[in-house]
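User: Run a structure prediction on this.
Assistant: Running it now.
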Amino acid sequence: MTTTDAPEAAPRPPAGRRRIGDTAFAGLARGSGLLILAILAGVAAFLIIQAWPSLSANTANFLTSNVWEANDRESPAFGVGMLAFGTVLAAAIALALATPIAIGIALFIVYYAPRKLASLLGYLVDLLAAIPSVVYGLWGIGFLAPQLVPVYQKMAEHLGWIPLFAGPASTSARTMLTAGIVLAVMILPIITAMSRDVFHQVPQGHREAALAMGATRWEMIRLAVLPFGKSGIVGGAMLGMGRALGETMAVAMILSPSLMMSFHLLQSGNQTIAAHIALQYPEATGYGVSALIAAGLVLFAITLAVNMGARYIVARGSKES
């Protein structure tokens, strides 16, 4: 009886060399993580230092005032509360519109569309992320807004009893709702891509078990796919919201400059922090520049809070799964 020789094991590198490689890689990884923290701390420190002169000299309530006279060297007065409200409102509208559509597109691509059609749709959705924001702004103000004027009038006529849709509707449709629709289109590829990747990772055993129990395709998605991908969907939605919070050109081109707080989505009014900074910075001097940086500090805090909340939700969802 003959026996086959066992394959020889590959020679192992010397222990010292292996430890040096592990130590170097661990150091690089640790240094990269610390670098991110240092950059974040540096940005925060820059914003605080540059914003402090205007904050200390401000004669108005920084959180509630709706005036912006920051270029006054003797008594600058400005408030950022109205801008923060507009920023959150625009991002919330975009998120409410984009998230269900993005989930539907991702489910169709992964579980319903033929393979060739799914590849084409995935490519087209990803292509939306490559379009510059100024192009979205031109599309919003040149095409979408005129088309929405009669729609807004009908909404004010039939849904005016709802405070959000109270009239009179804007005759130019340069409203927060229009800006929210444009932002929804802009963040759609981000949420769709994240959701699509999560749906691809659902274990095949979970899906087959649901189908074997007699579930329909929709029941399989509802019982096996959506619970598994919940944390990924939330993470994608928060990434999209971060993009909407910081969007500048598209919003600045659509909204009329205004410092007010209004829940009426069909009327002109409201402005976002990023758009206000873009519009005011070219003419800002002295305290005006510092005041705009103070507004940027508030936007930085809002974005940081949103991302921290998203990380908590994602981590909690992953733990529950």
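The chain has eleven helices and two strands.
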